Amino acid sequence: MKLNNRLIASLALLATVMWLGSAQASTIDEIKKRGHVKCGVSAGLPGFSAPDSKGNWQGLDVDVCRALGAAIFGDAKKVKFVGLSAQQRFTALQSGEVDVLTRNTTHTLSRDTSVGLNFAPTNYYDGQGFMVKKKSKITSAKQLSGAAICVQQGTTTERNLADYFRQNKMKMKPIVMEGNDELFKAFLAGRCDALTTDASGLAAERTKAKNPNELVILPEVISKEPLAAAVRHGDDAFFDIVKWTVYALISAEELGITSKNVDQKIKSYNPDVLRFLGKVPGNGKALGLDEKWAYSIVKQVGNYGESFEKHVGKKTALRLDRGLNALWTDGGLMYSPPLK
Amino acid sequence: MSELILRLHEKLPQWKSVTWAKKNLFNSIFNTILTISIGLLVLNILSSVVSWFFLDATFQGDAKLCRESGGACWAFIFEKSRYIIFGHYPTALVWRPALFIFGVISLFGASFKREFWGKRLFWSWILWLTFSILLLDGRLLGLTHVETTKWGGLPLTLLISFIGIGCSYPFGIILAVARQSNLIVLKTLSVLFIELIRGVPLISILFMASVLFPIFLPDGFTIDKLFRAQVAIILFSGAYMAEVIRGGLQAIPRGQVEAAKSIGLTNSQTLRLVVLPQALRIVIPPTVSTFIGMFKDTSLLVIIALFDLMFTTKSSLSDSEWLGFAREAYIFTAMIYFVCCFSMSRLSKKIEESMPSDGKKGKGVSYGF
Fold first, then answer.
1. Which of 1.10.3720.10, 1.10.287.110, 3.40.50.300, 1.10.10.10 is the CATH number of B74-89+146-354?
2. Which end of chain A has fewer CB atoms surrounding its CB within 10 Å, N or C?
3. Is A312 a domain residue?
4. Which residue of A has its CA nearest to B210?
């Protein structure tokens, strides 16, 4: 299966590279003609895109797609989701099967260039972290020298772990296994002192425990996984729309506009707010959208903070901290350039 | 008390099973120890299985309750069964795939009755499958349109495998006949196709259809993902069917063809009236097992993210409120697969039994003339 995966991955890469340089008709015209946006999503990543019991897509990535529907059509429901596997995603985007990928894709140089993608601003800063049992009294990854650490086989996670330990001159004792479930079971059974994978993944694993409160995710993040929406090269107008849709989500939180208070805010005197909500026109015209585009996003989807809390935040089963994903004013990395 | 035991003892050997057990399980000290220890082991396993399945199981409530109980979480199945079976099909319109499944079950039931066998049943199947596509899609019947990206679960698995079976059968016949043909071009093409397809795994063909094929199409022109997968499955099972049918063709003695020619039948008449009816009949058992294999193969659609039954099961596991109930979900799905495959093999048995075969009716098939 490992070999198969690698074969498939390289075929997929070949496929996408073969697409290079092909120009598309204007995506936004096509979307408007069609009447909905087609988004490629992961077919099951807890908190980011997963179907609920009724078969509706829910999650942080899914909300970016809904926001696009709200921005373009004034209706967050005018979107269609296409479930994509990791290997399929780039070809699906390049061949026009989807307009945009909102599928937990890490923004990297090679994807930005040779795979031919344009990345919207990061909508979730993920990164590799550690989980330990509360009773171990470990509070920092720096204390893990000599500790047994459960890690998945043949992944970048394993290499990141080795790098981190070498860098900090710590003694490494990895326990390598194949599947996520086995890893978590081994960790619970006490075969290792800590478990490492992406922080959002750790949070998902933690919910499987009988008593999740006994497990702690350490504050250190040892790798960079900025997850962002992506569109294909060569269509700047649509790229702008996707980019500013993500910024609008963040900006709304910066301005304190939520889905609940947006109708009061529209009566405020703050020029930034009025410009954002389209009371003072300009932004919509510049993007080729209705002036109420940002209003629709906030009204129907909410701001970034609301979406975060709804899908992955403290009140959900995942109970993720805002951490790097807090606004820059709160010590995070979420920052929107001015919408003017 | 002792009298009672004595009487019991007298009574015991009269029970057949007890005599049997005494003779086979407790006939020496070693065997008695073995029997008892294995019995205890089985009892132990059985009791933990039973308590996981029923006694400790949670039938109602949320994920938290399930995790505390430690047993199976059937509440998860109740919560997710709608999604696992129907996928992303809009809830208000779920009656459409439900009707489709109901129709398939009724037709399947009818197929068990000998008196229904015939052209009418055959056409009912074809009509129902065609109608179901229109029903699920909705546009031509004046209903709300539901895109193929929202089709999923059991209806999708049934649809893809039944259409695959329906199309690959005639396709396989054509390929097999072409392979037996004297026309060298036809024969070469058919051999090439069959060997090429049989030489690669289904996964790679599905992957070609879903990832590589779109590249060769002109820009902005896309063919429905479901349709591409369906074609891939038909091509794949067509090649396998062809080889099964070729076995049947080769079992027909040369003399029959010559006899048919000598009474003035044309080539196509010989094929249609003499060779094929016998050949196809001979290969009914391997045909059905190919069909069953194909039904299960549709679960490979997982890798191209088509929401068939297997994939809806997998993706139902990613709801952040309900993480970690993989065992329950897969048991549920395995049961559905089992019911489908088992009834298919029952049907094949029924068909076989009612067909005259070499063994039962003398030399019926080969020397029928």
1. 1.10.3720.10
2. N
3. yes
4. A88
Residues contacting residue B49 through CB under 8 Å, at least 6 positions apart: none
At A217-275, the pLDDT tens digits run 998 889 999 999 999 998 999 999 999 999 999 999 999 999 999 999 989 899 999 99
Contacts of A65 in chain B (CB under 8 A): none
pLDDT of B8: 60
Contacts of B214 in chain A (CB under 8 A): 91-92, 95, 97
CA B292 to mean position of chain CA atoms: 4
Amino acid identity of residue A118, one-letter, is: N
Tell me the residue range of the domain where A182 lies: 128-217
State whether A207 and B320 contact (CB < 8 Å): yes
* Contact (Cβ atoms closer than 8 angstroms) between residue B290 and residue B240: yes
Domain boundary residue among A197, A217, A237?
Answer: A217
Q: Considering only CB atoms, which chain A residues are within 8 Å of B80?
A: 53
pLDDT computed for residue A10 by the predictor: 58
Q: Counting beta carbons within 10 angstroms of the beta carbon of residue A306, is it exposed (0 to 12), middle (13 to 18) or buried (19 or more)?
A: buried
Q: Mean pLDDT, to the nearest integer, of A154-165?
A: 86
Sign of CA dihedral A298, A301, A304, A307: positive
Phi, psi for A59 (deg, rounded to 5): 145, 175
A82: CATH = 3.40.190.10
Chain B partners of A181 at a C-beta cutoff of 8 Å? Answer: 326
Number of domains within chain A: 2
Q: Compare CB distances from B315 to A18, A23, A43 and report the shortest one's residue.
A: A43
Q: B204 to chain A: nearest residue by CA? A: A8
Q: Which of B93, B211, B304, B309 to mutate to test the interface with A (most CBs of A within 10 A)?
A: B211
Low-confidence ranges of chain B (pLDDT < 50): 359-369
Confidence (pTM) = 0.83
> What is the spatial distance between Cα A72 and Cα A32, in angstroms, rounded to a whole number?
8
Do A28 and A170 sit in the same domain of this protein? no
